Amino acid sequence: MGSWDAQIAALREQFLQGAPDRVSQLRRSLGLLSADPGDQEALRDLLLGFHKLSGLGTTFGFPEVTEMGRIGEAEAGRLLQAAILPDTRQIGGWGQLVDRLEEVLIRTVPACAPAAAEAPGGVYRREHPYRIVVVEDDGEFASALRSVLEHRGMTVALAKGVEEARGLLERDLPDAVVTDIRLGGGSGFELVRWFRLQPGGETPVVLVVSVLSDFPDRVEAIHCGADGYFAKPVRWEDLVKRLEGLLEGRRTRPPRILSVEDDPLEGRLLATIFESAGYRFRLCGDPGRLEAELAAFRPDLLLMDVLLPRLSGFSLVRYLRQSEAFATLPVIFLTTQGQLRDQIQALRAGGDAYLTKPVNPSLLLASVAAQLEKARQLSRLVDHDGLTGLLTHSAFFDRAAAIYSQRTRPRGRGVVLAMLDLDHFKEVNDRWGHLAGDRVLVALAGLLRQRLRQADVIGRYGGEEFALILEDLSGEETLRLVRRLLEEFSATPVSIPGGETLRASFSAGLAVLAPSLTGVDAWIDAADEALYTAKVQGRKRVALAEGRP
């Protein structure tokens, strides 16, 4: 992308070059209304013409164009809503507005383009295990935290004091830093302030932990640049959930933004704003194609204009909200209509936010980022198991169905679904209690996170059953991999309440996605049958479905 200023200047030039056509279209609509005041299509075209000018004027340095567009739009909208025919006086008033618009746009001289928005960089991190730096001079606490994080599949480096931490952070930028406040050689607050000023230091997650739990300490943590504060003794589950949620938000693929906007120039302006900020953007210029665009593009957020040819944005969103597939899709209405009744109507239609054109690019980007973060948090609550942090049964099934229907497999490679079941898990619960059983579940989940790739799909399919989808592996390669996982898991003692340890194992069944499988249910059933075979053969083993490559 070129510079922001250059792109806005180019779009401003396009706006000025297209101004005569916009004025001509307004005059055409006025001519039709003069001949037939009852021509509702001409009145609506006039409304849309004023609407587009009111949204673009201020953006390109012509606030008087925005104001005149709003006046024309408001009067035309009032008559349409009330089903009142325009009289000669009203048509004449619109004619005077068009004359003034033409004068402003024709006599204009070059002006400075609007200032560039402070767009967030579109930096999306490569696939690798999360790397965490823990800065803590309490050896017992640091060791316990490292164990918890490593069980969640993260890699951890420890530093005892400020100087050692600076050395680590200068050598390699981590995904997150967890630091105490009281440290040898300085304060954790000072360390965080220093880190945030380093190149790239604004991106990683930073959490502060401390025995200091007073309100001023929490405020100071926020002030110095930390993303969260936890008082000791720390509840590991709370800390890990917060850390994973923040990391996931920073590591996601570029979010997709779909805009329903019939003005091509407005669409190019939005494309400039979002693509400069690292988003993927697509314009839907024909509201009738919205469903097709949603299915093809799969957006993370929808920008919706209100005034559209033949349709209302409110009606479109009401229609979408009737479908379960789009019930939680964030929707921001972006329009020139700023009256309270329109904002209320937007909320009733199912909108999540309402912005009035012309909108400041920084405000637009901030609003979009806030809605995307809310959607991510909701998805994590709904799609992830509370104990293990893995995908739930339904979320895993949805991922499996998507892979089954869309995956194209290179010759000689495959996609394998694995079902894992902990051996004699009921006996673990009966002998040591359910808390011990939970530790075993978390231990296996942690191993799977640690040893599998970031792109692999891992879910808790039910009770003590786990499910995996491993892509670009053959059946035999997956068989060897899962056997190694079994060997490592069964050889690793699991700490349980009371200071004891126990060892557990699992059985697994694998099924390669093959043309003979008639659906995702058949794929899962094939893996289940292989799992049953492994159990019948004595458990603590892995079986590959027969007839699979």
| Beta-strand segment tally | 19
Highest CATH level, the class of the largest domain = Alpha Beta
Number of domains: 4
Instruction: Say what the CATH topology of the largest domain is.
Output: Alpha-Beta Plaits
- Work out the helix count: 19
Helix content: 40-55%
Task: Compile the SSE list and pairings.
Elements: H1 4-35, H2 40-56, H3 63-82, H4 88-107, E1 131-135, H5 139-151, E2 155-159, H6 162-171, E3 176-180, E4 182-183, E5 186-187, H7 188-196, E6 205-210, H8 215-224, E7 228-231, H9 236-251, E8 256-260, H10 264-276, E9 280-284, H11 290-297, E10 301-304, H12 313-321, E11 331-335, H13 340-349, E12 353-356, H14 361-383, H15 393-406, E13 415-422, H16 425-432, H17 434-451, E14 457-462, E15 465-471, H18 475-491, E16 494-495, E17 501-502, E18 506-512, H19 520-536, E19 542-544
Parallel strand pairs: 1-2, 1-3, 3-6, 6-7, 8-9, 8-10, 10-11, 11-12, 18-19
Antiparallel strand pairs: 4-5, 13-15, 13-18, 14-15, 16-17
Helix pairs in contact: 1-2, 1-4, 1-10, 2-3, 3-4, 12-13, 16-17
Concise account of the structure shown:
With 549 residues, the chain is α/β, with parallel strands linked by helices. 52% of the residues lie in helices and 16% in strands. Mean pLDDT is 83; it is low at 109-127.
